[in-house]
């Protein structure tokens, strides 16, 4: 779908200021809602309470609401005449992490925490949706707010697509999403082109021949076999990939055996691959299989190895034209708080939605760390030690200006497209 859009940075800033004039009223319910979401996190595909709160808030704001999309997904639609159709997405799920923040609104769920900031994303998009609904004189088109489950396991976006998201929302002109990350609160960062890596997790089972630890000659030791595979896998990146390419290959788990003097009959390895190029991704995945099969043959393994791919995330590549428009609007509205974002090896499944809807997209980051705390850590060269990153049990975005910035960013980005 193509629409003629006549918006410029000055026009966007003027309209954004008018829409965001209602931010104090929205902030009054946003902050308590954020604390509630943070205190009641839900794991992937279990976001029932969160989805209920989202749907209720969207209805109160005047949006048409569709629930149960892809399981626990929620879609809110706000139509305001003819014009571009803009999709804004927030993910909802938490992580199996025990919180260690000492916040007064820390997680009340044992072993579950919003350690990646998805509660922030939900709160900001709900705020932006209400702001658009309160100020329909300043834009034309359709805002589609998508609240997605199960980002952390890489299949939530795909689940919504397979459950008929395209038929539900119709054609769209552009899709946008954002993520809070460990940078000073109040800052925004954008980037054109590859911004987040593709990710693949793989479970590999290799087989030996078990026996007594005192008689290794009668066995095929799967621990030795697994160890050789780990060493050999490291040469794929160092000796088979062009040095100009960024590839991360990590073996995160090896499990074998039950007792010190018993040689088991199999070993299980789990690894994770991050790539920024589809051809490199394909080549490395093939090389992993080749190395494992070769080492099994070298060890005289009695059975073929088994491979299971899971938790696959697509490469996130920001469309150049869409990103340029959003960057210009951010620069005009936020000034020097809008900066360039380096590509990162984290991964995200948002791209599955615009890919299915055949629409260009952009994805940006916004900071959530207290500015003085961040500057002190930089000055002491202790950013890695003193600043908790996403997925840390200590990750806790400051309430403000994090929520304001994320809400403002969605409004400004949306208005850069909406007429």
Task: Explain what you see.
The protein has 419 residues and is an alpha/beta fold. It has two domains: 11-196 and 316-417, 3-Layer(aba) Sandwich (Aminopeptidase), CATH 3.40.630; 207-313, Alpha-Beta Plaits (2-Layer Sandwich). The chain is built from 13 helices and 16 strands. The protein has helices spanning 9-19, 23-39, 48-61, 118-134, 156-162, 165-169, 222-240, 278-298, 320-334, 352-357, 371-379, 383-386, 402-415, and strands spanning 64-69, 73-80, 85-91, 141-148, 174-184, 188-190, 193-196, 198-207, 211-212, 247-256, 262-263, 266-275, 306-313, 316-318, 338-340, 361-369. The strands form four sheets. The protein has an eight-stranded mixed β-sheet with strand order 1-2-4-3-5-16-6-15, sandwiched between helices. It has a four-stranded antiparallel β-sheet with strand order 10-12-8-13, covered by helices on one side. The protein is elongated.
Short description:
InterPro entries: Amidohydrolase, Bact_exopeptidase_dim_dom, Peptidase_M20, Peptidase_M20_dimer. This is N-alpha-acyl-glutamine aminoacylase. With 419 residues, the chain is of the alpha/beta class.
Q: What keywords describe this structure?
A:
419 residues; alpha/beta; Aminopeptidase; Alpha-Beta Plaits; 2 domains; four-stranded antiparallel sheet; 13 helices; elongated; disordered N terminus
């Amino acid at each position: 779908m193509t629409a003629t859009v006549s918006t410029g940075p000055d026009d966007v800033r003027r309209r954004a200021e008018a829409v965001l004039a209602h931010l104090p009223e929205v902030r009054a319910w946003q902050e308590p809602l954020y604390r509630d979401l943070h205190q009641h996190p839900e794991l992937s595909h279990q976001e029932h309470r969160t989805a209920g709160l989202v749907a209720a808030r969207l209805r109160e704001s005047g949006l048409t609401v569709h629930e149960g999309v892809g399981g626990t997904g929620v879609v809110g639609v706000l139509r305001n005449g003819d014009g571009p159709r803009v999709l804004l997405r927030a993910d909802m799920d938490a992580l199996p992490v025990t919180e260690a923040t000492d916040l007064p609104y820390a997680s009340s769920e044992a072993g579950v925490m919003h350690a990646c900031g998805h509660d922030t994303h939900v709160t900001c998009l709900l705020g932006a949706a209400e702001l658009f609904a309160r100020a329909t004189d300043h834009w034309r088109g359709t805002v589609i707010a998508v609240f997605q489950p199960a980002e952390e396991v890489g299949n939530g976006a795909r689940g919504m697509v397979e459950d008929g998201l395209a038929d539900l929302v119709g054609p769209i002109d552009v899709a946008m999403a954002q993520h809070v990350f460990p940078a000073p609160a109040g800052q925004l960062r954008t980037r054109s082109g590859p911004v987040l890596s593709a990710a693949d997790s793989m479970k590999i089972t290799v087989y030996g021949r078990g026996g007594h630890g005192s008689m290794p000659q009668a066995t095929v030791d799967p621990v030795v076999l697994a160890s050789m595979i780990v060493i050999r896998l490291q040469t794929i990146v160092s000796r088979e990939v062009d040095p100009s390419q960024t590839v991360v290959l990590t073996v995160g788990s090896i499990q074998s055996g039950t007792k010190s003097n018993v040689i088991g009959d199999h070993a299980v390895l789990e690894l994770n691959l991050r790539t920024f190029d589809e051809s490199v991704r394909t080549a490395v995945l093939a090389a992993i299989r080749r190395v494992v099969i070769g080492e099994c043959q070298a060890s005289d393994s009695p059975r073929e190895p088994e491979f299971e791919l899971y938790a696959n995330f697509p490469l996130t590549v920001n469309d150049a034209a869409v990103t340029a428009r959003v960057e210009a609007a951010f620069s005009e509205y936020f000034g020097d708080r809008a900066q360039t974002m380096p590509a990162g090896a984290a991964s995200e499944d948002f791209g599955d939605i615009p890919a299915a809807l055949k629409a260009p997209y952009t994805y940006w980051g916004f900071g959530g760390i207290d500015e003085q705390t961040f500057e002190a850590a930089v000055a002491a060269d202790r950013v890695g030690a003193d600043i908790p990153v996403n997925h840390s049990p200590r990750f806790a975005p400051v309430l403000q200006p994090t929520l304001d910035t994320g809400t403002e960013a969605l409004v400004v980005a949306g208005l850069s497209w909406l007429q």
